[in-house]
Amino acid sequence: MSHLDNVPSTPGKFKMEKSPHIHSRLRWHSSTAKLTFWSFIFLALILIFFFRSPSSNPLPQDSFRRSLRTYNWGGPAWESQVRSSARVRSRNGITVLVTGAAGFVGTHVSISLRKRGDGVLGLDNFNDYYDPSLKRARQALLERTGVFIVEGDINDSALLSKLFDVVPFTHVMHLAAQAGVRYAMENPSSYVHSNIAGLVSLLEVCKSANPQPAIVWASSSSVYGLNTKVPFSERDRTDQPASLYAATKKAGEEIAHTYNHIHGLSLTGLRFFTVYGPWGRPDMAYFFFTRDILKGKSIPIFETANHGTVARDFTYIDDIVKGCLAALDTAEKSTGSGGKKKGPAQLRVYNLGNTSPVPVSDLVSILERLLKVNAKRNITKLPRNGDVPFTHADISLAQRELGYKPSTDLQTGLKKFVKWYLSYYSGGKKAAG
Prior knowledge:
alpha/beta; 39% helix; globular; transmembrane helix; isomerase; membrane
């Protein structure tokens, strides 16, 4: 793969190489003015959310603060568990640290890596953004497949450094993040803590590791913000985020460029489009729609101000996992040593979607048929909380370079989700959290 080393300020902008003998590659263009702008944005976020006085910002209940509590780690028995979980069991296997391993995507990626013989170690802080019991159930599932999850925070640099001392990871799948567009209005600090500070914490440890790992991390389709172009391409502008969540994901892409440019870290960003499926997140519409339909509660069906349709590019979890593994398998080695760059390093970003936007009203109709229950629909205007009217992924780059090809339609995927949901929640009688 060709190397990328031009300085960008808008990762969404790139150009394709013109050589007929080399695959098209992402090129992130430099712009001193935009880099300065985003630098001020990052600084402002840090000043606002980290240095306000306790009296003006009492947050004793913030889940991100609770996630920094002291965990029990270290010692011979603990190190033995870590090494056993990270042990490669296939001839050409890789050794992967998966952050956010007890999350929705993290669980599925970890299981898939383990099944093909790769060494996998998980890291998760088990915060309570949504029902922690679901995360614990995923943890139990991972343990049955031989994946050990270290309970800790990605901002704990001592823990991260210890993990890299115990295991020479070849790759990192960074999925730990504060998710959710709407929650950012309630607890903005948690997004800066996890999505910006947490990423920097991880990259700082990775740049000093020997060897440096190749890193694949989750960005988001939300970076496209107010973009009206359909479908969304990696070439499109991403400097007009519609929510704080999107802004932190955009910040992550800018930060990734910096560590690639200065320290030689191999970095691949994946922009996920509305992932759904078994073991999913309860804050996602398909999940709580299912819960509320079964309980006989009304569900909100959003429409735009002019009665337009709200649609999403729903992507089944198995298709996302295939894209994640392909990104890991094609990631080149980092080029730094002792924190210093020795040569050009790989820098990429890809959309992972389904390319088939579906109106949310159609999603509800499918759920009604699968659950055999009529939904109580409450048609309401799309709130001004950072949500966008539609998403639609252009995946041509991922198809060409990763061999990415989604194969699960919404009807099939929701059928699998509903089957899991009814089983996990005992026929819908157990509270979904």
